[in-house]
Amino acid sequence: MKIGVIGGGQLGRMLALAGTPLDMNFVFLDPAPDACAAALGEHLLAGYDDPEALRRMAESVDLVTFEFENVPAETVAFLSQYVPVYPVAESLRIARDRWFEKSLFKELGIPTPEFADIQSQADLDAAVAAIGLPAVLKTRTLGYDGKGQKVLRQPADVSGAFAELGSVPCILEGFVPFTGEVSLVAVRGRDGETRFYPLSHNTHVGGVLNLSIASTDHPLQALAEDYISRVLTRLDYVGVLAFEFFEVDGGLKANEIAPRVHNSGHWTIEGAECSQFENHLRAVAGLPLGSTAKVGESAMLNFLGSVPPTDAVLRIADCHLHHYGKAFKAGRKVGHATLRCQDAATLQARIAEVQALIARG
Amino acid sequence: MKIGVIGGGQLGRMLALAGTPLDMNFVFLDPAPDACAAALGEHLLAGYDDPEALRRMAESVDLVTFEFENVPAETVAFLSQYVPVYPVAESLRIARDRWFEKSLFKELGIPTPEFADIQSQADLDAAVAAIGLPAVLKTRTLGYDGKGQKVLRQPADVSGAFAELGSVPCILEGFVPFTGEVSLVAVRGRDGETRFYPLSHNTHVGGVLNLSIASTDHPLQALAEDYISRVLTRLDYVGVLAFEFFEVDGGLKANEIAPRVHNSGHWTIEGAECSQFENHLRAVAGLPLGSTAKVGESAMLNFLGSVPPTDAVLRIADCHLHHYGKAFKAGRKVGHATLRCQDAATLQARIAEVQALIARG
């Protein structure tokens, strides 16, 4: 089976590593000449809106999927004329616009921070008056890893904030005094069968995911599964979807969804019976889903900017290196380490070892 | 790091899948246009004795390794002028000739069936008189998966047997009434550090490996480790080496070694903390070795001739598919399944499920 992937970054690379043993071949559409997935398949070097490249991809593959959600709606519509596209267009439309996303949460009865649509500075002033400070102003589209957002702490931060983010459509979100951040990765097959990984407990630094620890019997697992199921069913979703939540007062408030494999699920490569990458491919290909059960105690640490020397990473017991083969650049996600241990105490010790290695720079 | 691999079959393919996350890139030299590793690296389409191709490979890679041992000695010598080659030439010279191999076992005090060098039918007649029947006549080189050998059960089988195998140098081996077949996969680093996987219990059908089950606390583990260590040290070996033994009277008799990753170690992809493929690459690259500890109870079943439908394989719980992307052909190794289970009883049940699927054809 030949799979077309829009995007050829590390998520595409890990999809190909998971899919090759299932007899899948990959074609990546990516305008970057050094797209790091290219080593594992065919690389269509073209823009996401290049009709000639899209047509060539559609004609040569059995289905198309995405490694990121910020794809023009026209791209999805164009491809869908020729070939099955998963996840379905509606999921992408919702997930790439924070206003649609939050509105869906509200419609489905999923608690989420207060929010308001912001089309002007006047809208912003009114929304701040209603929601209060602190609050976070975010562009409706194209935001990721803390980009395209601004925290408004005091009235002085508000004036001019809309222009600072480019005078593009935004939403304002009330600040949530959360005690933790968790994400649920789920996979739903073409037939509607759904499986859930254990909740990941996530730590962000400067808006970028730093550490994910797979939970065991998390008390909010069932609630998170309920919430994500509402979204999956409503969108008739196919593939892996990640749902990020704030832990607030012993409950959950929805932050955002990602209609794709997700950084907080990278631990599943070694830490789960069947990884999020394999399960996404199984789902979109109409194959039976794999087990989402944990294998040992597991965590993932991102390497940002650079990957420590390979021998130093591999010297740490229980540590698995995932180097993305990307050029090093400050703040860029260039690799991660997965830890898989016998017990939680060992896992904590190993996390400290990897963190110490990262700190050495 | 760029790795040159002589051979681009399934072993090369699985090496590339293991090495890509370590930031390794691969160049495969293989005369077959449809070499199944080619999807995961650069493919030099040339013979193993093509000096131009060998020079091009040597100039573009950091080191060269092998996915099979039947490489001309001249190839190894030629490459070694330009680039480090692992395992070392002497290992390949020994392992590809059954006479050298058995002679080494004898020299190192490792029990092995009686054997004799056969250069003519007269040699064979004399050897049969000395060793007795039944016995097995094998070509000294180029034999694998039961090819290049003939079982001699009665005197009538002996006459003309040397010509039947092509009148090439052979050895005669006394038949061993074994109770089981096991193999030990070990990895030795450039610095001499050595690690051992648990013994695999192997079942062959028609000379071809059918099923490997990873053992737990096998009573012969220590003995097998002693024997393989003698070989590793004597050859100053670097990389993964597999040693196949017969279980005889509660002890071990050496059958053969393979200076490479081995079919009986395929279960380590999911069934061990660090797979034989990753550990081979770590060893030849001078990186720290990974843990050879088991993760759960594990077994591997070969798919010969064809791979059952993907959805049927993936429907079996605890089952991981490894499709080699090769054209189906009677008897050809075209894929395998790894099972990884919580306990031995579940593993046996799952093995039966996969066997039933294979039997359905």
Automatic annotation (TrEMBL), chains A, B:
List the PROSITE patterns hit by this protein, alphabetically: ATP_GRASP
Q: Which Gene3D superfamilies match?
A: 3.40.50.20, ATP-grasp fold, A domain (3.30.1490.20), ATP-grasp fold, B domain (3.30.470.20)
| Pathway the protein contributes to | Purine metabolism; IMP biosynthesis via de novo pathway; 5-amino-1-(5-phospho-D-ribosyl)imidazole-4-carboxylate from 5-amino-1-(5-phospho-D-ribosyl)imidazole (N5-CAIR route): step 1/2
UniProt: ATP binding residues: 98, 138, 143-149, 173-176, 181, 204, 255-256
Provide one Gene Ontology biological process annotation: 'de novo' IMP biosynthetic process
Give the top-level enzyme category: ligase
Pfam families, from UniProt? ATP-grasp (PF02222), PurK_C (PF17769), RS_preATP-grasp-like (PF22660)
Q: Which UniProt keywords apply?
A: ATP-binding, Ligase, Lyase, Nucleotide-binding, Purine biosynthesis
GO MF, any single term: ATP binding
- Any idea what this protein is called? N5-carboxyaminoimidazole ribonucleotide synthase
